[in-house]
Amino acid sequence: MCRLAREKWTATRYWEPPGEVMARIVMKFGGTSVADIERLRHVAGRVAKIAGEGNQVAVVLSAMAGTTNQLIEWTREMSSLHDAREYDAVVSTGEQVTIGLLAMALQEKGISARSWQGWQVPIRTDDVHGSARILEIDGADIIQRMEAGEVAVIAGFQGISPKNRIATLGRSGSDTTAVALAAALSADRCDIYTDVDGVYTADPRIVTAARKLDKITYEEMLEMASQGAKVLQTRSVELAMNHRVRVQVLSSFNDTPGTLVVDEDEIVEKAVVSGITYASGEAKVTLLQVSDRPGVAAAVFGPLAEANVNVDMIVQSASPDGTSTDMTFTVSRADLPRVRDILAQHRDAIGFQEVIADGDVVKVSVIGVGMRSHAGVAQRMFAALSEKGINIHAISTSEIKISVLIGAEYTELAVRSLHSAYGLDSA
Amino acid sequence: MCRLAREKWTATRYWEPPGEVMARIVMKFGGTSVADIERLRHVAGRVAKIAGEGNQVAVVLSAMAGTTNQLIEWTREMSSLHDAREYDAVVSTGEQVTIGLLAMALQEKGISARSWQGWQVPIRTDDVHGSARILEIDGADIIQRMEAGEVAVIAGFQGISPKNRIATLGRSGSDTTAVALAAALSADRCDIYTDVDGVYTADPRIVTAARKLDKITYEEMLEMASQGAKVLQTRSVELAMNHRVRVQVLSSFNDTPGTLVVDEDEIVEKAVVSGITYASGEAKVTLLQVSDRPGVAAAVFGPLAEANVNVDMIVQSASPDGTSTDMTFTVSRADLPRVRDILAQHRDAIGFQEVIADGDVVKVSVIGVGMRSHAGVAQRMFAALSEKGINIHAISTSEIKISVLIGAEYTELAVRSLHSAYGLDSA
């Protein structure tokens, strides 16, 4: 009973600033935070502070900024079609250097610490080398040592495959390692230290009135990551959501509290709209005079799906004469040349007059879990854009997101107008 | 019976140039041979040639020249008294990069290959981190793959401790890895590729008439390594001798055959003297007027031994009056300041008038297994030096070696004279 009471207390007090309550915390630092000996010492100072407050701490590190790129460059020089297993053996070494050095720096400060490579934990992955998925983390050994006061310093980005080879998780894999580890260790929180100090209502470089959010739901964060916000990668947010890992995004360069990514239940006052994002790198494709017959959508999108082209927004205009229509959709701008090729190859099967492509577009999204229970959110968006004379090329929605495709030149105007329209501007 | 016959045949044909007989060969390349992508490609070419002739090949690599020093420098910057286990975790990464890249380069040439880190083999060591000893190598997996035609590319210098931590073998550890692996794999030969093309009768930079030896015995190589020849480290020669691993020293930059280090039985015509070496870095210490009483040698050398100072040659002059004598011995020049301190601390216990130290000396040695069965070898040395007016400060001998301590300014003269005196000059 005592134990239950204590657990409840921990849970309700959970969102206090770090350090006030003894907790188990995973701290993750990226490449710029560990770029040299001096910055590693600074990281050691931050870890020592949290550990010194009586918390159990596991640290996940990336390689020094630039190291992994150098290693990747060597593998490219050596062989254009290289063995992904050997690629992983080479590019996983950067993290092994930083974890050893940080363990030393912590010991220098009188903190008990040891480094852990992926295979030592072990962090078990599948054998899709270069972009492996974590299957299982055995945290028993680390938990025992954390309970004895030792800080675990763990290599991000890497694990061990079923065949005993080192496997890397792909870009931003260290965030994934941190979140998965937090789940395996039943950590109270996973703190992701970055070069920004949290998640904002909009990109502060565009909207000076943008505010840092104290809390955001997993679902919102996921939409934001998908819709252009670069703070966290979609994959690590998904993992956090699936395992209900409390994630905090905060700056490694200052001491201000960051943004907590949490379950919807933990946010009492849900904002209708939490943030405005924009994604450039989109392209609009229009097929003119597509024959309006059953199966034509499959004829267009089947070949694109086969070629792994992601199609996002789709608009089909009404067919005025009942025989042909115009079809508009968006793809990643990088895919545009392939899309043109594929459409040309399938021109006869699809039946259209002409392809028009426009790379000068941007997708602006408003995101918020509160819109589930509020009517008129979309209408306010369309009104705000219309008021500024911004034409909407396409619309797509999810339960907690409305996206519109507009001309790229309107990006800043649209984001600022929407930020004001939804009452997000700071006082 | 067939099998025995074949084995005998392999044994007698053993010393043919590489490639003529199908064999199992360990090839080891040092840091300068793998210093960049281009040199790694060159190494891949050499490996591909040997493998392409039908031999089973395992390759042992060092890190790119300079890499390990950079890693060591970082550990020093981070902490002066660092945890040796973390030091090992950091400095072992250099080899992991080169093995991955070489495996890629071999695959690019159509050769089946994979990289092996120490823990993957596994190469089991003790837990003396930074200078661990290999306890056991499980070569079963590698042998199976070699028999199936796969080249094993193995990280030198590293293994795994009983506690599942990476342990490094210390400087020149990659040679040790190669020899130990050759023993574990029952390899026919261990080829050590270096920047010289073999073992010479004397340092060719001093003696232009020096000849490359085709063969040399383990015992001679061991004395040469101890007495200043830098081709192979003592430790790897000892290991080769203990496990009767046939070692070849050869150049990674040209195709000439190197020097074979073999059992004495395999050399039919044993030279009286195989080589002349010199070791600078020695220092002569003389204690004047040491009291001539029982136990005085223990009083001098006991404290030095406790402080891990290696004392080499010892000369005690006859005591003219029966009460005091002069005592001369040599130590490593790097130890000289410590030796002075220790002697000063124990001055009362020992009882001497003065310490005179001379760092301007060199030890010249003549080495050869043939001197066991030949008289007059030492006499010829003393005569040759005397003829050139070179004064001998101290003498020490082993069964196959005579060393003299002389003034450093006579080094070249002494080495050249002895090289001629023992008939070693090339025609």
Instruction: Give the radius of gyration of chain A.
Output: 24 Å
- CATH superfamily placement of the largest domain in chain A: Acetylglutamate kinase-like
Strand order of the largest sheet of chain A: 3-6-2-1-9-11-12-10
By secondary-structure content and strand pairing, the structural class of chain A works out as: alpha/beta
Number of helices of chain A: 14
Shape of chain A: globular
Largest sheet of chain A at a glance? 8 strands, mixed
Oligomeric composition of the shown chains? homodimer
Rounded average pLDDT of chain A: 90
- Poorly predicted runs of chain A are 1-16
How many structural domains are formed by the residues of chain A?
A: 2
Q: Give the total of beta strands of chain A.
A: 18
How much helix is in the residues of chain A? 25-40%
What is shown here, in short?
Two copies of one chain form a homodimer. Chain A is of the alpha/beta class and 427 residues long. Chain A is 35% helix and 26% strand.
Keywords:
homodimer, 427 residues, alpha/beta, Carbamate kinase, VC0802-like, 2 domains, eight-stranded mixed sheet, six-stranded antiparallel sheet, 18 strands, disordered N terminus
Description:
- The structure is a homodimer of 427-residue chains.
- By secondary structure, chain A is α/β, with parallel strands linked by helices.
- In chain A, 35% of the residues lie in helices and 26% in strands.
- In chain A, the strands form 4 sheets. Chain A has an 8-stranded mixed β-sheet with strand order 3-6-2-1-9-11-12-10, sandwiched between helices. A 6-stranded antiparallel β-sheet of chain A has the order 14-15-13-16-18-17.
- The longest helix of chain A is centred in the first third of the chain and has 16 residues, at 37-52.
- The interface between A and B is large, with 38 and 38 residues.
